[in-house]
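Fold in tokens:
===
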Amino acid sequence: MNSRRPQRRSRRFLKWGLVFGLLLALTVSCMAPLSGVADRLALLSQQDNADVGLAEGGSSADIPPRMLEAYKKAVRLIGSRVPHCRGMRWPVLAGIAKVESNHASGRDIASDGDIRPKIYGVLLNGSGAGGNTSVFTDTDGGKWDGTATGERAVGPFQFMPATWESTGQDGNRDRVRDPHNADDAALGAAAYLCGRGRNLGQAGQLRAAIFQYNHSNAYVANVMKWIDQYTAAARSGGSAGLMGVKGKARTVLQAALAQRGVPYSWGGGTASGPSTGTCCSPSGKSGASITGFDCSGLTTYAFARAGISLPRTAAAQSGRGRRILASAGQSALQPGDLVFFGYAPGRDSTIYHVGIYVGGGRMVNAARPGTAVRFDPVDAMPGYAGGARLL
């Protein structure tokens, strides 16, 4: 009988070793525990192929302020370029730029509108990469697209170089028409959509203009959804969802919201922005080929914009600032707070996920592999473990 006790103890240690190993993986993984959460995981699964922001009543908070300035400036100037154009609104330009470049996500936008690093599309050589099946020969000698071996789309509005040569505008009045400048590109897009004088206030003419931009009905539908969202934001006064949020909290939230649509990447994201991640998540998903954020990468980036340095893992981040206990309920949270989720109630060492609270029971969330940065209900993640206030 005594000879069996060491085996039982060994098995017990093995069992708990596996449990703590799983907890450790979850702590650094930004993923939900693997059991007891079917209903909430089902909610996340339903959101995999939908941008929750479309159901949020509209928000311009995902647009970097300098890009939004460029869109609004283009609306003011378009009458001097296409006098007969009617109905141009900044949500129209925002809808195009959201789909084409996610508002120059991950780039630096200077005060004069210059975007760096420059944004280049795939080389259109018929290889199939990026969905291209047609060959486009070089037209600009690499002037705009950086290569003389072929053609690729450029800038936040993804103009073909030949189209830019005929349609490009000088939106920042520096006497240079540059598709890699936010003001120039936005005004160029406005001119292209206006054509010889469309009335973009009419749905049929607006759809025709978007179809001309990209001959795809799916593309038109996608852009129209974003135009509807940004139109709602315009009617509500701008940054819907951030009304009354000021100071560093607003800076953090705007930075996080500007990354909506950026892919989840296991281990991805730094204080400087999206990055490729590592291999592999407990479910076997690798971020090594994906440029984006995991949950703590997103929070690290957003808080860095407000001059606050965070440790890299969700569990370590729970030790910063003033801790808000889960027992206080979600009503104790304020916009800009970190919000945590753990495997074992009351044990911060088991925290596996972090988001940024926006208000109204919502958070900005990089949920898990296969999703993108988005709005989620706080209740979408299991194991609510309270928050932390750093602002």
About this structure: The first strand starts at residue 108 and ends at 109. The mean pLDDT is 83. The two ends are 61 Å apart (CA to CA).
